[in-house]
């Protein structure tokens, strides 16, 4: 039995589907029981637990061969990341008590960076879970290709995508969420005895210009990338409702300046099999 958190999201769903297709039993750990019907029909056992509820998580992780930990994303955290710390404490206590035989935790590229930024939340999670008496694999994927879902409407209607990734010709490590889920499922089934880091990106890197060119090919009209001026980010994010945009700006700076990168040597990075065109085509087809 494998306990999967975040199962209603793209990565968690991919993990669960991969396991189910392989004939492995899955316990869907969900915050909202109302969303359980789909997964129950697929044969999943259902466990209801908030990611801040250590007692409920402990029950969900009890007597499983592996647990997949997907911390809920917090894109506008309060200073000091109190939201992430509450999740970390609950997850740590639950895993310490339940002691699943294997744990895979979704982390991120750049989790080792010492400069404060939005991804510091994942560094804090790694630091806490490394102290557990069970082996934890920290899966650090690259920038999700699915993030470009926000650009479909503009690419289609205006022939422009606004890019915070800069310069526009700089290749960026990216990955499809389906590849993240498949690898996480493989790692859950391994009999790893020690904690480790596994890093993952696509077979090649893509620049914002590459993204625009791929949209152009799919939409069959010209699409160009346009850099959003750095000095406008704070006011733009605030106008969109963010109360604390600094961590997000710091993260984008990290990608653009190169200090958010993989920690391991290039030959150690696992390569995904899904290309950018496949993902963008799916995003375009799914868009209203």
Plain-language structure description:
The protein has 11 helices and 12 strands. The protein is α/β, with parallel strands linked by helices and 288 residues long. The chain has a domain at 2-142 and 174-201 and 261-272: NAD(P)-binding Rossmann-like Domain (Rossmann fold, 3-Layer(aba) Sandwich), CATH 3.40.50.720. An 8-stranded parallel β-sheet has the order 3-2-1-4-5-6-10-12, sandwiched between helices. It has a two-stranded parallel sheet with strand order 7-9. The protein has a two-stranded parallel sheet with strand order 8-11. Strand 4 (66-69), helix 4 and strand 5 form a beta-alpha-beta unit. The protein is globular and about 55 Å long. The model has no long low-confidence stretch (mean pLDDT 97).
């Amino acid at each position: 039995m494998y306990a999967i958190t975040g199962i209603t999201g793209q990565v968690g769903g991919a993990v669960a589907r991969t396991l189910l297709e392989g004939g492995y039993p899955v316990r869907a750990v969900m915050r909202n029981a109302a969303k359980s019907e789909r997964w129950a029909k697929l044969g999943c056992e259902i466990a209801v637990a908030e990611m801040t509820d250590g007692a409920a998580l402990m029950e969900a992780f009890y007597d499983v061969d592996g647990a997949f930990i997907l911390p809920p994303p917090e894109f506008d955290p309060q200073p000091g990341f109190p939201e992430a710390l509450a999740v970390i404490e609950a997850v740590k206590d639950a895993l310490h008590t339940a002691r699943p035989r294997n744990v895979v935790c979704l982390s991120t590229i750049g989790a080792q960076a010492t400069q404060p930024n939005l991804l510091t939340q994942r560094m804090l999670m790694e630091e806490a879970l490394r102290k557990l008496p069970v082996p934890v694999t920290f899966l650090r994927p690259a920038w999700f290709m699915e993030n470009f879902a926000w650009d479909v409407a503009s690419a289609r209607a205006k022939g422009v995508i606004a890019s915070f990734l800069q310069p526009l010709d700089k290749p960026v490590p990216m990955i499809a969420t389906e590849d993240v889920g498949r690898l996480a499922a493989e790692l859950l089934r391994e009999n790893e005895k020690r904690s480790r880091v596994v890093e993952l990106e696509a077979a090649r890197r893509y620049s914002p210009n590459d993204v625009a060119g791929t949209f152009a090919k799919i939409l069959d009209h010209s699409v160009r990338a346009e850099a959003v001026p750095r000095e406008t980010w704070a006011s733009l994010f605030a106008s969109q409702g963010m109360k604390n945009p600094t961590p997000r700006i710091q993260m984008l700076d990290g990608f653009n300046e190169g200090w958010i990168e993989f920690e391991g040597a290039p030959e150690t990075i696992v390569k995904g099999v899904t290309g950018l065109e496949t993902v963008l085509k799916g995003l375009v087809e799914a868009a209203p």
